[in-house]
Each structure stands twice: as C-alpha cells, then as structure tokens.
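[[Local backbone shapes]]
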Amino acid sequence: MTPEIIVRLKITSEVHPPEFISEVLGVMCDKGWQIGEQRSKTIIKERVHGWILGSGLEKSASLEEQIKALLQRIAPIREKVRASLAGDSLEISCVIYSESAPALNFDSWLISEMAVLGASLDIDLYVG
C-alpha cells in the first residue's frame, strides 16, 4: 500500500468564521465550518470556526513535498495570516496513513518557514 498523506493549513477561531478569514486573506478555503455545525459522520458539534487550505498535491506525494507545496501556496498571504489573525490558532496538519512508520525528517528551511508563519505542527500517524 502506498502511503496516503494529507497536509493542510488549519486556522481555528472562536470569533472569525471561515468567510471572514477568506475575505481577510483573499483566498478561499478548501474546507470550512462554523461553530455549532455537526461534524460529518459524527454527532460532534464544532466548538470553533475552522478554515482549511490543502497542499494542492495528490495524497501519494511525500510529506516533505506536500509541506513545501503548502508553504509555497501560502507564501503570498503569509504576512496577512500573521498580522490579521492574531489570536487565532494556526496549525500545519499532517495526516499519514501507512503500512509502516515513515521517516519524519524536516530540513531547516521547512522548520524556519513554519516558525515564520507562527504555526504549530501536528502529525497524526496511522500505521497498519
């Protein structure tokens, strides 16, 4: 089985709905939700607003390729993200489905770019 990897920027906010975030950044999200909406295929109600922008690559692309693609995709709006959304939560979310544990190695450029953005890094690994 080829690993499936999903990398995206996730912005969550207690005050800013996804439409507001899209307007401020000048970029439409790939997925968004509002407080109180029911999460798909669950009974969970969302407690915060959410705005997601994916890497734009296929799930078969490597983790490093996807992170680089995402950082390049958001490069033109990076300053808007940092300045306009202070107080909101910024996260680079990586979800990996694989038969074995993949290498989790990040070069210094990727770490530096994530730090400049002010985003945390979340990696969910599903091996099996």
The chain has four helices and five strands. Residues 64 and 105 are 8 Å apart (CA to CA). The mean pLDDT is 92.
